[in-house]
């Protein structure tokens, strides 16, 4: 299996800056049927000793975000079992195109590096990264997103399998702190103080996929919890992408099964961007999760007759958020 990182942060000691890479080979689109994949519950659950180490997150107490709030994400309302409320530390996530990156906790060096690079490049391109906070691929992807968020990209979103303000696994507490400091979000549908129990994680995974345009599985065995996330994504009508790898080690067997079932074969961020761009053109993604922005944009344009530059100044939105709201308003008029 090669070398392993004890912490995803160690990737920064040797990983070069994310570089543009391209591969033109693509997989097909997944069928509407559910993938017939043998996956088990995510084995990222804590044992008793690690539960005790998941100390409180000493930045801010979580607050409750409910479906009655104006900016509640409409993406989650389409789920078979949508959450009634979420507990949040950090900022309310804005309306941004979001990509999930998931994979093995016991990932190879190459897998960790690729997760870091894909997340970093997607963030610099204006995509928000969503993941869990597990060891391995999840943490490496979040590290890449954090590095690019420090350069002006959107900060990532983390969905936990335990109650805030505790952070599990405890070695990722500093990563969680940096995410909040950069304007990102830590969320959980479990009440504050809830332990990271085994059955929480597969249930949590439906939110990771549900919040996303696409789920990218970087490295996974057939029994990885990431296969459950991919299965949720298929049920929810999201795109599923998988990164191929060595065929003899078994570390990518889950990814290979996904590709054979019709998932997109991806090897770099540009592949993912092209897939998500196709979603935007074909499914009017600008409509998703932006009702409040559409109403505000229409008011500013029609009643106050502001220019787009003036709207940007008045609202403080990012250019991408402005574009999403403007396209949504124009699509309603056409």
List the helices and strands and how they pair.
Blueprint: H1 48-53, E1 63-66, H2 74-77, E2 85-90, E3 98-102, H3 109-124, E4 128-131, H4 137-149, E5 157-159, H5 173-181, E6 185-188, H6 200-210, E7 214-217, H7 225-235, E8 239-242, H8 253-260, E9 264-265, H9 269-283, H10 291-303, H11 308-315, H12 319-333
Parallel strand pairs: 3-4, 3-7, 4-5, 5-6, 7-8, 8-9
Antiparallel strand pairs: 1-2, 2-6
Beta strands, count:
9
Over all CA atoms, what is the radius of gyration?
A: 19 Å
> Main sheet?
9 strands, mixed
The SSE string, one letter per element, is HEHEEHEHEHEHEHEHEHHHH
| Strand percentage | 5-15%
In what order do the strands lie side by side in the largest sheet?
A: 1-2-6-5-4-3-7-8-9
Q: What is the helix content?
A: 25-40%
Looking at the overall shape, the CATH architecture of the largest domain is: 3-Layer(aba) Sandwich
What do the pLDDT scores average to? 80
Query: What is the name of the CATH topology of the largest domain?
Result: Rossmann fold
Using the alpha-carbon principal axes, give the shape.
globular
* Helix run count: 12
Low-confidence stretches: 1-29, 31-46, 280-289
The structural class is alpha/beta
Domain count: 2
Q: Quick one: CATH class of the largest domain?
A: Alpha Beta
Alpha-carbon distance between the two ends = 55 Å
What's the short story on this structure?
The chain is an alpha/beta fold.
Describe the structure.
- With 334 residues, the chain is of the alpha/beta class.
- α3 runs parallel beside α4 and α6 crosses α7 (225-235).
- The radius of gyration is 19 Å and the shape is globular.
- Residues 1-29, 31-46 and 280-289 have low confidence and may be disordered.
- 39% of the residues lie in helices and 11% in strands.
- The N and C termini lie far apart (55 Å).
- Strands 1-2-6-5-4-3-7-8-9 form a nine-stranded mixed β-sheet, with helices on both faces.
- It has twelve helices and nine strands.
- The chain has two domains: 8-277, Rossmann fold; 290-333.
């Amino acid at each position: 299996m090669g070398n392993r990182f004890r912490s995803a942060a160690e990737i920064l000691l040797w990983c070069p800056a994310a570089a543009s890479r391209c591969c033109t080979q693509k997989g097909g689109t997944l069928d509407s049927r559910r993938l017939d994949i043998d996956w088990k519950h995510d084995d990222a659950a804590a044992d008793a000793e690690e539960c005790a180490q998941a100390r409180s997150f000493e930045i801010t107490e979580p607050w409750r975000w409910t479906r009655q709030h104006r900016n509640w994400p409409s993406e989650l309302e389409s789920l078979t079992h949508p959450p009634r409320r979420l507990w949040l530390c950090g900022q309310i996530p804005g309306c941004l195109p979001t990509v999930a990156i998931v994979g093995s906790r016991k990932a190879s060096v190459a897998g960790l590096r690729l997760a870091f690079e894909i997340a970093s490049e997607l963030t610099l391109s204006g995509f928000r990264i969503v993941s869990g906070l597990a060891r391995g691929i999840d943490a490496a992807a979040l590290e890449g997103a954090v590095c690019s968020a420090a350069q002006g990209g959107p900060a990532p979103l983390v969905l936990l399998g335990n109650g805030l303000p505790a952070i599990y696994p405890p070695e990722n507490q500093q990563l969680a702190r940096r995410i909040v400091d950069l304007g990102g979000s830590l969320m959980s549908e479990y009440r504050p103080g809830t332990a990271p129990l085994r059955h929480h994680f597969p249930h949590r995974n439906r939110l990771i996929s549900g919040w996303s345009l696409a789920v990218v599985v970087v490295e996974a065995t057939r029994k990885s919890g990431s296969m459950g996330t991919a299965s949720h994504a298929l049920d929810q009508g999201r795109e599923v992408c998988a990164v191929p790898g060595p065929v003899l080690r078994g570390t990518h067997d889950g990814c290979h099964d996904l590709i054979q079932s019709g998932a997109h074969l991806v090897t770099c961020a540009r592949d993912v961007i092209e897939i998500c761009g196709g979603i935007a053109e074909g499914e009017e993604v600008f409509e998703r999760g932006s009702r409040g922005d559409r109403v505000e944009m229409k008011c500013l344009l029609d009643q106050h007759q502001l220019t787009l530059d003036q709207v940007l100044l008045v609202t403080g939105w990012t250019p991408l958020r402005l574009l999403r709201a403007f396209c949504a308003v124009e699509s309603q008029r056409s």
